[in-house]
Write a structure and sequence with these properties.
Elements: H1 3-15, H2 19-38, H3 44-61, H4 71-89, H5 102-109, H6 112-116, H7 120-139, H8 142-153, H9 158-165, H10 169-191
Helix pairs in contact: 1-2, 2-3, 2-4, 3-4, 4-9, 7-10, 8-10, 9-10
Length: 199
């Protein structure tokens, strides 16, 4: 069975009243939802609360889920909206100081040579790159940050991101392109990359 089919089978079990099946979905997606929400909400204790709220909302709405999208894109949409609503009720804006870890940076940039050689210079460079990417992502508007996170960190397809963000696929492509351009501009001095090239 594919992941989508497994999720669908679990969803159908939940819709028939099987709470244990929902616990399996929570276990499967908890880490990803935490990682996604932490891109928007600053405090780690708040991230956990928002994630729990998102899962409660998903559980309550699951009876209406009709499989027009995959379960996880539907769940991501709930998580993003829950985080935004939470911040709005707190009178706060989304985080401007999230920390990208080195593995996230490698995923975003596909900097293969940083994986292969762990010289002190390259370790320092990878930390500088992580800091630069983190700073650039933190300054992105929410819609760009969410799109690039879903694509580069969560690995969603453009179609899945469009579904998650409830916007046309062309808008998703534009947001990801603009986010990559902002990050590339910040990285050029570090990577000694000429203008016109990303990295």
């Amino acid at each position: 069975m594919s992941e989508k089919e497994i999720d669908q089978a679990l969803v159908e079990r939940v819709q028939k009243g099987d709470k244990a099946a929902f616990e399996l979905l929570v276990t499967k997606y908890h880490r990803k939802i935490i990682r996604l929400i932490s891109r928007l909400v600053r405090d780690s204790a708040e991230v956990e609360d928002v994630a729990q709220d998102a899962f409660i909302k998903a559980y309550r709405a699951l009876r209406q889920f009709r499989s027009e999208s995959t379960f996880y894109t539907w769940l991501y949409r709930i998580a993003i909206n829950t985080a935004k609503n939470y911040l709005a009720t707190q009178g706060r804006h989304t985080s401007t100081s999230r920390h990208a870890d080195i593995e996230t940076v490698k995923t975003c940039l596909d900097v293969k040579h940083l994986k292969d050689v762990n010289t002190p210079e390259l370790v320092l460079m990878s930390k500088q790159i992580a800091h630069t990417v983190n700073t650039a992502m933190a300054l992105l508007p929410d819609e760009l940050r969410i799109a690039i996170t879903l694509r580069e960190i969560e690995g969603l397809s453009y179609e899945e991101i469009a579904d998650t963000m409830s916007c046309p696929i062309g808008t998703v492509r534009s947001r990801i392109f603009r986010a990559r351009e902002v990050i590339a501009t910040k990285l050029r001095p570090l990577l000694d990359t000429p203008a016109g090239k990303r990295w």
